């Protein structure tokens, strides 16, 4: 199917214009841009390599999309004091041949950003083709609830495109304007922030696959009001926007060889303008962006052995400007190159063993921005070298990955023997 689409560009163009695939959930969330930081990521000299080793295998993503219900968890050791964690769950129930009720949960606690939401969705399907859905995301704070619409078009079980249109915090102003017995900070929006997300999936089987996702946050300016029982005059205005894009490709097999590639980027900006003088809130605009390219080369050496080579190139930049900042503002940049080279031994029908070498090199342009929480990012270059051993076990819809890494560098911190970082991933499909 995928090869047929490539041979017929008109069909491919139509596929890109129509709208979607049922089992791909939306990940659009405003909080990922509100909590986006770069200083906490680069404070640890091993973060670039940690991120590469915590990515779920492509086979997991395929199994996840094929399942209507399940959960998956990734725990990755982000530093010697903190874990990075991602949890995702979904369940679906057929109410009638045309209506489906589903629940999804997604949570990320990472150095890059934090996000946490529940989603209840009611979907109407027209046969195996298009569908229309309405979803609601309740949160602990009433003002943070989201409401969205989902349009989808399925060509078949593995091919389709879709669009989500989300009104984020659509009741925020009504809640914020109420008198309260609690003194708390409040925001007022000109209108509800909007998040638009588009995705495309074309899975041809036998490893060939295309997955594309893009999202755009377009909120209007919002005004901040200091903590009070009543709504005090606003002290500053803020505008937050951003977007992200990602393309994942997996080639069909060329003999014993196949290639997997991921490329994408994320960008965002925060603008703050004081509305009252003398409050110590200077005007400031901060732009952030990160871009990556992640190819991998695989070769099936024999029935039980596979050789793998993974590589990631990533750039991160942050620029701040304002009337109270130095003439050229504050700048920060980071370029990382990470790689993994190893072998997979298929020890049995349920058990694989991966082992090999992993390394990274990071070049950093430090910043003098006082808003950064770490003063340790002062080295122009960093290197990390480690060995890794991964246990891969699968049985009756359960997939487990446990990775232990072994330090090859002389690090200043304490560690147990040669232990470096650990990673644990589990997926349960129902």
Report a brief summary of the structure.
Helix content is 10%, strand content 56%. By secondary structure, the chain is mostly beta strands.
Plain-language structure description:
There is one protein chain. The chain is 10% helix and 56% strand. It is mainly beta. It has helices spanning 2-7, 9-17, 31-34, 39-42, 47-53, 58-66, 172-176, and strands spanning 70-77, 83-94, 99-109, 114-125, 130-137, 146-156, 159-168, 184-189, 194-205, 208-217, 222-228, 236-250, 257-274, 284-300, 305-321, 330-346, 351-365, 381-395, 398-407, 419-429. The model is unreliable at 1-25 (pLDDT under 50).
Structural features:
430 residues, mainly beta, 18-stranded antiparallel barrel
């Amino acid at each position: 199917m995928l090869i047929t689409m490539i041979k017929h560009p008109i069909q491919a163009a139509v596929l890109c214009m129509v709208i979607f695939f049922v089992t791909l959930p939306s990940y659009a969330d405003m909080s990922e841009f509100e909590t986006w930081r770069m200083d906490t990521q680069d404070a640890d000299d091993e973060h670039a390599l940690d991120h590469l080793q915590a990515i779920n295998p492509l086979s997991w993503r395929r199994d996840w999309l094929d399942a209507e219900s399940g959960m998956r968890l990734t725990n990755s050791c982000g530093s010697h004091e903190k874990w990075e964690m991602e949890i995702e769950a979904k369940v679906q129930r057929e109410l009638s041949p045309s209506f489906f009720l589903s629940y999804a949960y997604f949570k990320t606690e990472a150095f890059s950003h934090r996000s946490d939401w529940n989603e209840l969705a009611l979907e109407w399907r027209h046969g195996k083709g298009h569908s229309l859905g309405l979803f609601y995301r309740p949160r602990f704070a009433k003002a943070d609830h989201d409401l969205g619409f989902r349009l989808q078009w399925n060509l078949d079980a593995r091919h389709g495109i879709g669009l989500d249109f989300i009104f984020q915090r659509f009741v925020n102003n009504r809640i914020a304007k109420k008198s309260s017995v609690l003194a708390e900070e409040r925001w007022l929006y000109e209108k509800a922030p909007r998040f638009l997300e588009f995705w495309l999936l074309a899975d041809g089987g036998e490893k060939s696959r295309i997955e594309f996702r893009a999202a755009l946050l377009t909120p209007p300016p919002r005004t901040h009001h200091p903590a009070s029982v009543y709504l005090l005059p606003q002290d500053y205005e803020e505008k937050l926007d951003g977007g992200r894009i990602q393309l994942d490709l997996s080639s069909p097999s060329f003999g014993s060889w196949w290639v997997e590639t991921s490329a994408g980027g994320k960008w965002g900006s925060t603008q703050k303008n004081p509305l009252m003088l003398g409050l110590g809130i200077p005007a400031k605009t901060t732009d952030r962006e990160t871009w990556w390219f992640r190819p991998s080369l695989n070769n099936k050496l024999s029935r039980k052995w596979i050789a793998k080579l993974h590589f990631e190139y990533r750039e991160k930049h942050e620029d701040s400007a304002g009337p109270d900042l130095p003439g050229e503002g504050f700048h920060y940049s980071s370029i990382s190159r990470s790689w993994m080279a190893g072998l997979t031994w298929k020890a049995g029908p349920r058990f694989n063993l991966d082992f090999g070498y992993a390394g990274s090199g990071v070049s950093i342009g430090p910043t003098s921005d006082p808003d950064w929480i770490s003063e340790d990012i002062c080295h122009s270059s960093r290197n990390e070298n480690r060995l890794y051993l991964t246990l891969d076990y699968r049985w009756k819809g359960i997939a487990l990955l446990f990775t232990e890494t072994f330090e090859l560098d002389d690090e200043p911190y304490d560690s147990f023997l040669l232990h470096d970082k650990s990673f644990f991933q589990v997926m349960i499909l129902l």
